[in-house]
Amino acid sequence: MRPLTFLLAAAASVAALTLNDICTVSYAQAALPAAGFYNGITIASSSLVTSIGANYSVSDNYFFSDAVINYCNISFAHTHNGRDDTVNVAYWVPEPSKFSSRYLATGAGGLSINSGADTVSGGVSIGAASGLRSVRWKDGCVVSRTDLCKLHFNLDTVIGTPYYYAASPESSYYIQVKRQSSSATLTQNRTVSAKGVEVAKTIMDGLHDLKGRRVYFSHQPSATFTDAETEYNSATGEWELSVRGLGAEFITRYIELLNTSTLANLDGVTYDTLRGWMYDLWQTYDDSFQTTWPDLTSSQDNSAKLIHIPENSDFSMPTASFVRYWESVFSIMFPGPIIQWKHRESPGLLPAH
């Protein structure tokens, strides 16, 4: 929240102030905006609490260098006027002497709200205040150059390759704070079939509607085919579609507006249905969930910096979609010939502008 950064900017200019001086309830409450400052939101200043974290270790973080930090955790709640809700927020702020007048915002990851201390601690390590925001989880790559793999690897060459998976019971796991589950599987000792390769090719080619028009990009090679996951039905003895996870829940909660995370089946669903769902979501949530607004002029005018980091093998957000968004932003903010960004896999190579 912007007033907190103003508080720290002032604190940083006064050498006598320490973390102990600013990390008090009264000091933080004084920095909160007056009632009515944010339209439609009421901040519960009485809910504000502060706590100091000392010698916190930032290590093995994908985005930040190793560091040891001291910080103040400022937490409070706010409500949306006219709604019976409570939203809890937390901000980690660095020591006044190390504050660099910056705020770090991160995002986004499915329906996850935040990734806990992983990103806010990194913000403090670079002298920035940071709040708990949506972040994207990482998926490891087993292929060093997925761009070359996509161009040159012939999937037909794996037809007939043997594979083996031992039987496993049904299990539960968590993506951020969202509980997911995987179905029980039987022992599988088979070879890759031509039909299986056809499914893989269709996925990697990206979503097209029934007229053959491209709807969306697909993932890079080595990303898991989560959308094609099946589960064994012991009653019928057949492998069937697995309609689970965030994708199914998004349809029921945000398109059908039902209070359930369960989508019964995909009966009657075609590629055109998927295109329609995506278009409906775009129009319905353009002013709230949409994260690909291309005109970032206001951020640029306020000296904000956006670091855009594509994941090579992300199975939820295709790497090509990052490239498309970058091109969209560039065409809106810098009209004229577009400098083409060619996706490369080498570590450290990011689009420069």
TrEMBL record:
InterPro entries: Tannase/feruloyl_esterase
Signal peptide: 1-16
EC number of this enzyme: 3.1.1.-
Keywords: Disulfide bond, Hydrolase, Serine esterase, Signal
Record-level Gene Ontology MF annotations: carboxylic ester hydrolase activity
Highest taxon in the source lineage: Eukaryota
EC main group: hydrolase
Keyword Signal: yes
Family, similarity comment: Belongs to the tannase family.
PANTHER family on file: CARBOXYLIC ESTER HYDROLASE, FERULOYL ESTERASE B-RELATED
Name of the protein this chain belongs to: Carboxylic ester hydrolase
UniProt source species: Phaeomoniella chlamydospora
